Amino acid sequence: MEAKVIDSDVLILGGGMAGCGAAYEARHWGRGLKIVLVEKASIERSGAVAMGLSAINCYLGVREGENAPEDFVRYARNDMMGLVREDLEFDMARHVDSSVRLFESWGLPFKRDPRTGGYAREGRWQVLIHGESYKPIVAEAAAKSASEVYNRIMVTHLLTDSGDPGRVAGAVGFDVRDGACWAFRAKAVIVSAGGASRIFRPRSVGEGAGRTWYAPWSSGSAYGLLIDAGAEMTQMENRLVVARFKDGYGPVGAWFLTLKARATNAYGEEYELKYRDEQRKLYGRYADAKPLPSCLRNDAMLREIRAGNAPIYMHTEEILDTPEKEAIGYEDFLDMTVSQTLVWAAQNINPSKRASELQTSEPYVMGSHAACAGAWASGPQDVSPADYFWGYNRMTTIRGLFGAGDTVGGSAHKFSSGSFTEGRLAGKAAVAFIEDHPSDRPAASDKALEDLREEIYKPIENFRLARGLITGGSVSPDYIDPLQGVVRLEKIMDEYAGGWGSMYTTNATLLRRGIELLSMLKEDLSWVAAEDLHQLQRAWELRHRVLTAETLLRHTLFRQETRWPGYGYRSDFPKLDDKNWDVFVNSVYDKASGEWKVFKKPCLRLGF
Ligand code: SFD
Ligand code: AMP
């Protein structure tokens, strides 16, 4: 395949919520710049918001006098058991309301509060929307802003400058429809390629195995691309486990916050505060925090399950007593998680008459929900302490390379609106970076491009060469296919890194063995085979997932405490240990030597 080469000023990789925000804002500040957006699916329906959402989970209501950005920082800090980048949280929070109002001006229908005429609240930070078409509405604004949008291109690698591996120069990938190789050169690059599902074994099995809570196509590219390029990462041990309706993974927020449903054990007993004494002994003051941090709500549920009091029920039947509430309940899922209504239909559950089971999910890696894994990024000049600011907002430790949304670590609770907002902040900063360095034109060497072009198609070559050696069936002695790879990854992570099958529990011995097994899987990645372009995409998604998983394992091994019970437990260090671990864990991977550096970074508090 010949490489088609595109030159640009700002290059955005991934057109989900953050990528769309980046395109919109970069156009505002960079009127004459060439802004190119590259997406592996099609931005109209891509990313975690593809099927729609029923709530926007980050809206402060500053103008309405509901919350101030400082309140939000305190909320996120408490929910993350103390460890957030307060500068990033504050910066996003002070701008997020304007993004939400933009969505409304573009035609997104909001539910209204009949008393105030304002947005109807789901909870203190969330507003209710009729959000089936949320993504097409946001994508339209991005499509109008970008100079060119390249859909159906799977980005596999970042390019760095031939003379300076610490300076980004663009990215390469291939067209998942016709196989063409694409090289995008750029002065600044924004990675907004989303979080990661299917790192850990999902609860769904067999023909339902594609079902996960976070999107199955969230393949960890945001992390894989960055880790491979040597960017510093943070909080990668802060995996996310969410409490969800069983089997369909329907979210619980609207049920708890708007509809005020009760969750109980098998015997009708509410359990959330039952374990407070134990939680206080192990995790200190957070056990008494209000609201109880998300991970401690999970922890209480897991303790209840371990005590033999499963199943846990969400009592929908107690609250769906008016047509209006019934509409809110159904629309919550029809706008966002249609499969949950299908589970109701398939399992004879009428939610007005019968409670639904709740269950904790497999862990995900992401930076925008109640967790904050991702890249270590510069904050804004006016808020960040010197250690957290290196010239441009949301720039990673690689010069000219920015991140937003799930990509950026340390700033939890952004959700869809905050990810879009962070994209806007990165877009603005990327334009400033380009304008400040008019003669800075990075270029990857022809040799590097040529090598990557070969590497990209290696799985197709593996298949072509070895397929004929199979004498019966489809299992090859010479290669593994991407699904076999992902299942092997999930098994390793589930059993050694504390997935649901291990009750989220691990220890140093398990983690070390997990790293060893993963290194063998990494060797076999050279022998992944792709029979077509779809499988070639799966092969590269697998590689990004494996890099994400390895970083998670190494961070989890390094942090010798249990910081986020309910998301993960270190059985050898069962307590939260503020004395030694009130810090971020950061890492850098050196691809050339294969070595990792994992180290502590101070968590600076800014007086909020
Ligand atoms: O209820 C490549 N989220 C919710 N946010 C809310 O505001 N309200 C909710 O109600 C939310 N809930 C929820 C949510 C997500 C899901 C799946 C469900 C329910 C079922 C979270 C938000 O969706 C999330 O925070 C943001 O979408 C994050 O934004 P961003 O931009 O960081 O990720 P993305 O939108 O997934 O976009 C990533 C894009 O990159 C593309 N991509 N392109 C090229 N090459 C590659 N290698 C690529 N890899 C990925 C993707 O295709 C995508 O377009 S609730 O549960 O809390
Ligand atoms: P979820 O539907 O679980 O993704 O949650 C949506 C939003 O509601 C997120 O901001 C959650 O942190 C919040 N949330 C969910 N359940 C609760 C709860 N029981 N108490 C407080 N906040 C919650």
Overall description:
It is a single chain. This protein is α/β, with parallel strands linked by helices and 608 residues long. The protein folds into three domains: 3-53 and 63-108 and 128-238 and 365-436, FAD/NAD(P)-binding domain (3-Layer(bba) Sandwich), CATH 3.50.50.60; 243-360, Alpha-Beta Complex (Flavocytochrome C3, Chain A, domain 1); 455-577, Up-down Bundle (Methane Monooxygenase Hydroxylase, Chain G, domain 1). It has 16 helices and 19 strands. The chain has helices at 17-29, 69-79, 86-105, 134-145, 221-228, 253-258, 276-283, 294-306, 323-334, 338-346, 415-436, 446-466, 482-496, 508-524, 533-558, 578-581, and strands at 3-13, 35-38, 55-56, 127-128, 148-150, 153-161, 164-175, 181-191, 233-234, 243-245, 263-264, 312-314, 356-360, 374-375, 401-403, 505-506, 569-570, 583-590, 595-602. The strands form five sheets. Strands 1, 2, 5, 6, 7, 8 and 15 form a seven-stranded mixed beta sheet that branches. A four-stranded antiparallel beta sheet has the order 14-9-18-19. Strand 6 (153-161) and strand 7 form a beta hairpin. Helix 5 packs across helix 15 and helix 13 (482-496) packs parallel to helix 15. The relative contact order is 0.17. The mean pLDDT is 97.
